[in-house]
Design a protein that fits this description.
alpha+beta; six-stranded antiparallel barrel; 17 strands
Length: about 800
């Protein structure tokens, strides 16, 4: 109990004493700080003087009975007041507002400063007068009295700091001046210039009554003037009605209160609706000669004005059904070679149709265009090492034991130190004193130190034996490639059109690696096996890229079909106009995309104009025309006598003789006069001679070969030749008549006729034609022709001991091997 009472008494004493002590300390500190700030007198900076006043004032307030503190506050206050008053005099004329603030501080520091009080009252009166003038200026501007307002505003320039909204007054002055100009131009009927000026006026002074009043007059006059201009369009044609509606929309935007603009717009909208939608139904509104795509575009242009009409939705639905799909297409695809499962005939077909979108419908019977994917060929490259470089380096082959020179040096030093120690001992024995004793101690210490160093130092050390060697730096490569030819041709009897483009996709991944680095390598190198993109990912990426490019390619070729129609001046303007719209429907991702934005306005103008004007606009379009190819599809009949076809083809066939004694046949393949033959015909040959049916001789060299397919491609010194073209069909049908040409047993120009017995595919995926036409030695490498004279395949071999079992490599295999030379 006594302990608790003692604690309570102690706390009470603390509560009474601590505030008293704090009160005693704080004023002194403030006073002392103020004295420190005034040590610079009479050259104290303003801020330092004012800060000192604040410190003295705090000290006096904390200890009000102290006359010393009170006297100091008054003394420093007078000094601070005079300083603030002097600062105010600098802004008396240039900046009244700042002057007022300094005078207020002067009076605050010294209320007895009568001159400062008088000057403060005076400057406040001047500020009130300036603000009154500013208010007068505002009233003048609201009434449009710009000259009087400008005179006053100029006189207030020096006092603008005392006028809070001076900048607003300057902007309002600009706005009123612009409104005055608009008023003058309105009187002179210069409506466009007046509109420009009143828009500027409203930007500068949006709330000025004078500007608002003039704006109302100008806008009403301009709106009426626009309606007056619309009267020149009175023919009732679509182009005229669209112009009228555009003008009335503009007139309503200029003056929202113009009831006449609304009336004219409503009348023109009804006329346009009747013109586009017809009085009763779509059948009566759309003339039989009007193309539904053009009608749909006209409906789209008119939509902002007629979409509320009850006939609009049904008419649009009907026209959409008539305009799309516009193309009935057939999609054909040859068998792919070595391609991932994602690239199959169905996937190719679906992606082509997706690329054409709602413009196309698959129809194998009543088609307009055929899309054919020829020779889709896929290849995969896995090169574990390429760009191999031999890099010089060294490795530690062993170690030599070498005498340590430091150890020998320490031995010599220790020997010398021991001699010195012996001398010191003799000197100390003969003449013992402080000096000889000190020398003896130092000599002994040196010997002990060197003995320790010698004991810690190895007498020998190992030196590395470095041996030179080489390791490899290389690049590992993995790539997947897809290539095909996408062709488009029109149905016989339709407009002639045939074109093609090569569709390729490639994914490649390569990384550097090192090999052959020894564990003891002295350069810090390590063996590094590159990690490449997994082959399945590589195939997936290239498949996706190829199918996407196939979509874009299909769009571009289809757009090219319509572009050819746009430029065909024999077609009527509606057909050409519709074709241009279909071009731009298909333009995304193609070369036509850039032209879409450039020519969209031309197409829009041509849509609403009369036929003659539309033709002129269409003639001005600069659409790219796709290169046409000479193309014969399987749906067209070839009535030329087969004798003439074979005689012509014979000129492209050559007899081949090599220095190894081999005989065979071949044929010119491209306009570059390359020759195709079998690989076994030229295998091991250094000299290759070609002989044509006209007995001309050429030399050849192997340009490329494919041993698996038994194919070889030769470059020649021929400058002109009659080259044969490959057949475009996926494969010949069983029973089709075929002709084999070659030089069996050296009998050049021999033709044998037969039929396709079957189509065969080996386990490695190579396609062959089985035929019953006789194939003999010397026929190898010669062409197998259709009745049209195109190459179905290359005669390759026959089964010995059997008649009628002869085989030719299918032409699609030629493209798979040497398609790159067709570009």
């Amino acid at each position: 109990m006594k302990t608790v009472r003692s604690i309570a008494i102690f706390c009470l004493i603390v509560l009474l004493i601590v505030p008293f002590n704090l009160a005693q300390v704080t004023p002194k500190e403030h006073y002392k700080k103020g004295e420190e700030l005034l040590k610079c007198r009479p050259f104290c900076p303003q801020n330092q003087l004012f800060s000192a006043y604040d410190e003295f004032k705090i000290a006096a307030s904390s200890d009000s009975p102290s006359k010393k503190y009170q006297k100091k506050v008054v003394e420093v206050g007078k000094l601070a007041s005079r300083t603030a008053q002097e600062e105010a005099h600098k802004f008396t004329t240039s900046d009244p507002a700042t002057c007022e603030k300094w005078l207020e501080r002067a009076v605050q520091y010294d209320a007895a400063n009568d001159s400062a009080t008088h000057e403060l009252a005076s400057i406040r009166g001047a500020i009130r007068a300036v603000r009154s003038k500013a208010e007068e200026t505002k009233q003048l501007l609201d009434r449009g009295e710009v000259q009087s307002a400008e005179i006053i505003l100029i006189s207030l320039q020096q006092s603008k700091s005392a006028i809070p909204d001076f900048i607003d007054l300057e902007k309002e002055m600009l706005g009123v001046k612009a409104a005055k100009g608009a008023e003058t131009n309105l009187e002179s009927h210069r409506y466009k210039l007046a509109m420009s000026q009143i828009e500027e006026a409203q930007r500068e002074a949006p709330n000025c009554p004078f500007v608002l009043d003039v704006s109302k007059k100008v806008r009403h006059a301009e709106s009426d003037n626009i309606l007056q201009d619309s009267k020149q369009y009175s023919s009732g044609s679509m182009s005229h009605l669209v112009h009228v509606l555009q003008l009335t929309d503009y007139a309503s935007r200029v003056d929202e209160t113009n009831d006449r603009a609304r009336e004219v717009r409503q009348s023109a909208s009804h006329q346009l609706a009747d013109l586009i939608l017809g009085p009763t139904s779509i059948s009566s509104s759309v003339q039989p000669t009007t193309n539904p795509r053009v009608s749909l575009e006209r409906l789209s242009i008119a939509e902002p004005w007629i979409q509320q009409d009850s006939r609009f939705t049904s008419t649009k639905t009907t026209l959409m059904a008539q305009a799309y799909p516009v193309l009935h297409v057939r999609v054909e695809c040859e068998n792919s070679t070595n391609c991932p499962s994602d690239i199959n005939q169905e996937a190719i077909r679906q992606n082509i149709l997706e690329g054409l979108g709602h413009l196309a419908k698959a129809d194998r019977n009543d088609w307009i265009l055929t899309f054919r994917v020829k020779s889709p060929s896929c290849s995969q490259t896995d090169v574990a090492k390429q760009s191999v470089q031999q890099v010089n380096s060294t490795y530690v082959a062993g170690y030599n034991q070498v005498a340590n020179p430091v150890y020998a040096q320490l031995q010599q030093s220790l020997y010398s130190a021991q001699i010195e120690l012996t001398r010191a001992e003799i000197n100390n024995q003969n003449n013992p004193n402080f000096g000889t004793g000190l020398a003896l101690g130092m000599a002994g210490g040196t010997v002990i130190r060197l003995q320790r160093q010698l004991a810690a130092t190895p007498p020998y050390f190992q030196k590395e034996i470095l041996q030179q060697y080489q390791f490899e730096k290389f690049v590992a490569l993995r790539s997947c490639n897809v290539e095909s030819i996408l062709q488009v041709y029109a149905k016989p009897g339709k407009k002639s059109f045939a074109t093609e483009q090569t569709v390729t996709a490639s994914v490649e991944d390569s990384h550097e690696g090192t090999a052959g680095v020894l564990p003891q390598d002295n350069s810090g190198q390590n063996n590094l096996q590159p990690v490449l993109l997994p082959i399945e990912q590589c195939k997936a990426r290239v498949s996706s890229d190829y199918l996407n490019k196939l979509k874009i390619g299909a769009r571009e070729l289809a757009a090219g079909f319509f572009a050819a129609a746009v430029l065909d001046k024999q077609l009527d303007s509606d057909q050409r106009l519709a074709s241009s719209m279909y071009v731009f429907d298909l333009a995304s991702g193609t070369q036509y995309e850039a032209l879409r934005s450039k020519d969209t306005l031309k197409i829009r103008d041509a849509t609403v104009e009369e036929a003659a004007r539309s033709t002129t606009l269409l003639d001005s379009l600069d659409l790219p025309v796709l290169k046409q190819i000479s193309f014969q599809n399987t749906d067209s009949s070839d009535n030329a006598p087969v004798e003439n076809v074979l005689e012509h083809a014979m000129e492209g066939v050559v007899e081949i003789e090599t220095d190894s004694g081999a005989l065979g046949s071949g044929f010119f393949f491209t306009s570059a006069c390359m020759v195709l033959t079998n690989h076994h015909v030229i295998e091991g040959a250094e000299t290759i001679i070609l002989r044509t049916s006209s007995r001309k001789l050429y030399t050849a060299q192997v340009l490329a070969k494919d041993e698996q397919r038994d194919l070889a491609l030769l470059s020649t010194n021929a400058h002109m030749c009659n080259f044969l073209e490959l057949e475009e069909t996926e494969k010949p049908h069983v029973g089709q008549e075929v002709f084999a040409i070659g030089s069996p047993l050296g009998l050049s120009g021999t033709v044998t006729r037969g039929i396709v017995s079957a189509m065969r595919t080996t386990s490695s995926g190579i396609h062959y034609i089985q035929l019953d036409a006789t194939i003999n030695p010397g026929n190898s490498g010669g062409p197998l022709l259709s009745r049209s004279g195109r190459v179905l395949g290359i005669n390759t071999f026959k089964l010995r001991g059997f008649e009628g079992l002869n085989f030719a490599v299918l032409s699609s295999e030629i493209r798979s091997s040497f398609g790159r030379f067709l570009k």
